[in-house]
Amino acid sequence: MSDSAAAPNSAAAFGVYVHWPFCLSKCPYCDFNSHVRHAAIDEARFLRAFETEIATTAGRVPGRTVTSIFLGGGTPSLMQPGTVGAILNAIGKHWPVARDVEVTLEANPTSVEATRFRGYRAAGVNRVSLGVQALDDALLKELGRLHTAREALDAVAIARQNFERYSFDLIYARPRQTPQQWQAELKRAIGEAAEHLSLYQLTIEPDTPFATLHKSGKLITPDDDSARELFDLTQEICGAAGLPAYEVSNHARPGAECRHNLVYWRGQEYAGIGPGAHGRLDIDGRRHAIATERRPETWLTQVEATGHGVVTDEVLLPEERADEFLLMGLRLAEGIDPARYTALSGRTLDPARIETLAAHGFVARDRHGILRVTPAGFPVLDAVVADLAA
Q: How far apart are CA 9 and CA 248, in angstroms?
C-alpha cells in the first residue's frame, strides 16, 4: 500500500476544490450543480470571481500548504487552458503549494475537449478524470452523453500521451445490463486504464429525468440481488487485474489513489471555490462546513459585491464532525482509527455494536485497532454506518 494510504487519517493534507458549473447538456441521471447556457459564458468575468473568492478564502485560512487541487463540475474541460492556468496561479499566489501537488481536471471525452489536453498540461494540470460512463454507443445515448465509445477511447489515448496519471468513470447496474455484458465492458476498460477507475452503480436521484422515468415504470434498474451480483463481479475482476477498491466505488493500483478524494474521505481540510462548492475549514479550532451559492450568475454577482459566494457557514458540533468522519472514513478500504472518532466526539464507538457487525462479517478490526468495513459489508455500508453512529 502507498504511503498516502498506509496509515488511516494520519497525513496532513489540504485540498482546494474549484467548481465550473456549466455543461453543454444535462445528463438525465445527474443531480450535480450543473447548468446549460445557450448564450456564451463570460469566462473572463468568472475567472476574476474565482480569483477573488480564492483570495478571500485564503485570508480566512492562511498558511495552509495545498497538497491537491481538483477542478470539477459541471464540465471544467469547457474552460480555456489559459483560464485553468490563471486559477492555478491564483491558488499558488495565496497559499504555499506542495512540490508534488496533485492537480486533477474532470473532462468530457469528446474530440473537441481532448484537443485542449496539451494546453491543460502546460497550465499545470497533472491528472485528468474522464467521464466515459459506458463503452457502448446505444447506452451512451441513453445516458445522455454527447460522445461515442470510439471518441471516448481516443480521448483516453490522448490523455495517456499528455498525462502520467489519468482515470475514467463508468456507470454500471444500468437497465438490461447482464453480468456477461459488464464483465466484457469492464475488462475492456481495464485494458485502457493505467492506474485508476471510478465505477459507480446507477442511482436514481430525485428530481432528475431518470427519476420521472423510473417512477412511471419506463426505466427499470436491476433489483438488489442483480445489483449485488454486478458489484461482486466488479470487485473480483478489478482485484484480479491489480486494481483493488480503495473506496466503495474507486479502484486503483497501489500508490495511484486520487489524493484529493482521500482528503474528503479522511476528514481533512479543503476549500470550496465556485458556484455550489462545499468546504471544510478549521478556523479558531473549530470545523466550519461552508457552502456557496449554487446559481452561477447569482454567485458571480455576490462575489463581485462581497468578495465571496458563501451562503452557509456552520460550525459543526463535535458529534456532527465525528459522524461525518465515520460516514466518510468507512468508505475507505483502509478504515478508520476509532481513537480519532473518540477524540472528535468525546465518546467511544459501542463495542457491542462493533462485535455484532463483526459477527455478521460486515466489519473487522486489526491488531492496531483500525476498524474496517469488509467486502461483505460494503454493499450495505449505509446500514453499517447508521448502526455504529446510533
A: 17
At 341-389, the pLDDT tens digits run 999 999 999 999 999 999 999 999 999 999 999 999 998 999 999 999 8
The answer to whether residues 232 and 323 belong to one domain is no
Using alpha carbons, select from 283, 306, 297 the residue that is nearest to residue 53. Answer: 306
pLDDT digits (tens, 9 = 90+) for 8-38: 444 589 999 999 998 877 565 565 666 677 7
Distance CA 77, CA 20 (A): 9
Among residues of the chain, what percentage have pLDDT more than 90? 74
Same domain? For 326 and 233 the reply is no
Give the Cα separation of 62 and 99 in Å (integer): 18
Non-local CB neighbours of 91 within 8 Å, separated by 6+ positions: 16, 54, 66, 69, 97
Q: Is residue 300 part of a domain?
A: no
Q: Is the pLDDT of residue 226 over 90?
A: no
Rounded CA-CA distance 374/187 in Å is: 24
Domains held by the chain: number: 2
Look at residue 298 and tell me if it is in a domain: no
> Is 284 part of any domain?
no
Whether residues 134 and 256 fall in one domain? yes
Reply yes or no on whether the pLDDT at 159 is more than 70: yes
Amino acid at 261: N
C-alpha–C-alpha distance, residues 199 and 188, integer Å:
14
Domain enclosing residue 95, as ranges: 3-263
Do residues 42 and 121 both lie within one domain? yes
Q: What is the CATH number of the domain that holds 338?
A: 1.10.10
